[in-house]
Amino acid sequence: MIRITLRSLRADALRLLLSSLAIVLGVAFVAGTLMVTDSMKAGAYARAGTFDRHTDVGVYADEQPLPPALVDRVRAVDGVAAAEGELTGSAGVVGSDGRPVLGYAVLAAIPTDPALRSYDVTAGRLPDRPGEVVLDAPTAEEEGFALGAPVLVGGVSGAARPYTLVGTVDVAGTSRDVGGPFIGLVGADALAVTGEQGYGRIMVAAAPGTSREALAERLSGVAGPGTTVWTRQQILDAAVDDAVRDLEQFGLVLLTFAGVAMVVAGFVIANTFAIVLAQRTRRTALLRLIGATRGQVFRAALLEAALLGLAASVLGVLAGAGLAAGMAAVLSALDVPVPIGPTLSGPTVLLCLLLGTGITVAAAYLPAWQGTRVAPAAALTDSSVQVTRGAGRARLTTGAVVSAAGVAALGFAATVGQIVLVAVGGVLTFFGIVLYGPVLVPALVRLFGAPVRRLLGATAALAVANAVRNPRRVSATATALVIGIGLVSAFVVGAGSVKVGIERSVDARIGVDYLVTGIGGGLPATLAGELAARPELGVVHEHRSRVADGVEIRSAHPELVGRSLSGVVAGDVDDLRSGTVLAHRELAEARGWAVGSPVVLAGRTFRVAAVVTAGEPSPAPARVPAGHLVDVVDADFAALFPTERGYLAEVEPADGVSAARARAAVETVVARHPTVNLMDQAAYKKMLTGTVDMLLAFVTALLGLAVVIALVGVANTLSLSVVERTRENGVLRAVGLTRGRMRAMLAVEAVLTAMVGAVLGVALGIGVSAGAMAFVAKISGDFTLVLPWGRLAGIFSVAVLAALAASVLPARRALARPVVEALGVE
Amino acid sequence: MSLAPPPVRTGVAVAARGLRKEYGHGTARVVALDGVDVGFAAGAFHAVMGPSGSGKSTLLHCLAGLDSPTAGTVRIGDTDTARLDDRRLTLLRRDRIGFVFQKFNLLPALTAEENIVLPLAIANRRPEATWLRQVVAAVGLADRLGHRPGELSGGQQQRVALARALVTRPEVIFADEPTGNLDSRSGAEVLRLLREAVDTLGQTVVMVTHDPVAAAYADRVVFLADGRPVRELTAPTAERVLDTLAGLDRTAEQDGSRVAATDARRGR
Ligand SMILES: Nc1ncnc2c1ncn2[C@@H]1O[C@H](COP(=O)(O)OP(=O)(O)OP(=O)(O)O)[C@@H](O)[C@H]1O
Ligand SMILES: [Mg+2]
Fold it and tell me: pTM of the prediction?
């Protein structure tokens, strides 16, 4: 039996080649992902201890930063050879063009004691005293900064100041390289720039002969509560864990998409086996006729699947190596640090081979069982080309129930308040489509085929008849496309809706001309003051908020606050001034406050100016019960919480000042602060929606493979069908169908199949997105379902064009045989 | 069968001149047709007979523009098929030639009616309703039009194929063993229809067959042997056809024994 299996595999190798491409692609994705994350992990391990080469013990701050005085106390402990405070934070560098250097910049305090210094210096030296700075080599080079030259560095604490560049360091691939510049200052300068009150940790080098554990013990006593003392080993372990955790999450995201691709590949494989075994009915029956048991032919089919899966997986692993190199290139283009040379490890190879083979066998299981249920008498008939039956009643009933349940889950997810229901609904609806496919898909093919028939006549009529003659086959082919296209369009619709929601919310809340935002951190403390001091500017309002005593206290500007309110219950909003607050209704009711009530916030007494209602709850995760909110003026907020920084300031020109002059005034101030960014409203929207677009592009690229695999499935089904219709196509050519029209016929068949898959996929995607957006709309009314028609049409046209391309090879195959020979095929 | 009066068709419908067809190269070379000169008069029923492997199918394929000869010319009416590219040749088949093969003539996904009008549909032509009705009635399929080939008997399928060949009113119908797969009753039915198409419609039919009874329906029989026309009968009867075939076999046997004898002499 094994020999016969090998024979038939060899005979059908060409037929199976295309379908195994689905597995090759899926496995390549998995292998590539594993290789890239492996090599990134290896890099992370290698780099984990970079900044702790000489650290024996570390004292870490729990919540409150460690005061500089503690560093001195630690240094005095017996057995400590050196101790220095270290902190990392954000800051910015003003580039040679006078604008902030792009990217999120990391600032670190660099030890001055050589016993603790752990940086790779590429030029010059590390900073020894205040006023000196080192940068990462690439930034210094790109900006053309020379050693000894002044470099402007600024942070949250105030305007940028010049520091002398004394050296450059290599931090590539470490936790301190996140794509932007690296800035190294001595401890005191770092504290000053970041505005921090103390260090994040104290690095300690032990004196010779001192045990790390004993020293850690002693230091715990000195450091006291609010700190954690770690030995070197603990520090390294934590660093590795940290680095690897992020990578594992990243890898998991990629593997999820690879999983989707594999599922689609499974669909394609299952369909291929169903077709090939149907075409082989006569041969199977002949084997049964001469005495093979059904078990034997079934096991032979599974063995064939296993061999095919294994071969495809091997190719997939090889292709994955290529893919990994590509991925590494893309990632490093995106500034994600990837150490070069992804490695192929034994476990990766094993996992990929098992996965590819397993999925192939699992996908072939059902078709093999059905395909070997052949009566020996079938050897004497010509059954594979007959028009086959559709789905049974049981299948259709289940399909109807499952899709009804799915649609219900999508519809009620928002009402019930369970976002999980959206996912469940999507999956159920998909299975409903799969089960109902043998009825639904041919019906849609006929429907979409009708206008094409009018246009192309008999060519299209033949294509429609060919497409629908085997309902299960066309349905399986189309539904494989539904997965990828459904997910892509769900994300496209979701992203489109979220973008419109963001724009609406910006329109609703932000009514000013200019916005100043912090890059990767809060706004510098002095910024609002500097802006307010400019005579060209009128309103300057820094958004800040803080929770105290179960109440969210928000800074507000009397001229702007109206936009965020939907109504006034009592009192007058214009009475908001220093010493008064706007209390939101829920809070006022809960605490029994009325207009004029004295209220105590963070130890100061205010008077309620008005009880108001908010336009809508803020989309941020609620830190307090809904509506437990007061608005106070900026000055009062600053007095209450002087260290609380905002991320956004609204700025408007003073009366009678032109936009250009006002902008120039803002720019003059902003130029001194490399950690902030000036934007008008449109740019602000673009910044917020840009992230959504980027995520969408990322997701679409990853899901693209699933769509490609499904399209391979379309080509595959078509070319298998062409093989089985060789004689028919010979008849068609004999009675006068030209080569061009034969090609057109196959193209129409492919396009109709893909179109149905795309339409069902887009519909499913819209359904899922609608469920999700209904859910989000309950949190914020700005978010409603918006259909980005252009992009959906784009998805659709890509599917159609790809299907056209997919029909080229099968057509070539159909036309390769001379008519006479085709007519003679048994 | 009360069909329209026969259109007047005269002259030669199909003619081959110096037709050669070779398969393979070198030692594997087979000469299937070895310089065939033959003409088929319009408005007549021609049968082609000969031993298995004598080149009957090959001749038919070359005449019908399904295969291209190695040398020689084929004329359908006034058209030299060698001068046509694949596209024109296909259109010629579509518009001017009808086919009936031994089996698997039909598209399984189409109904009988759709199969019948297929050449017209491909040509984007609307079937003439009265003509279609006549053809369908003639082949006796009026109540089977909505069925797919899988639901029809072999004889019915052949009649569908015949209707398809007739519906375009081609200049010539080529049939390769159209009754080869049928029992004698269904076969007789198909042959009677071919005969009537010639008599009442003035169709030209060229039919390959192994069956002397079938050949007797024809006006003329051309005998092939070793890729060459060797004999002809007009107004044949089954007995005369049998006799002629037996004569051919005898010649072949004599050839064979002569070769064997030569070999034996050489061996000595
Ligand atoms: N595609 C081909 N390749 C090689 N040789 C071929 C091919 N087709 C036919 N032949 C050879 O050409 C010769 C004539 O074949 P053809 O099919 O025309 O015979 P036939 O008279 O129709 O026989 P039959 O009565 O068995 O159908 C035979 O010797 C055959 O082996
Ligand atoms: Mg033959």
Answer: 0.79
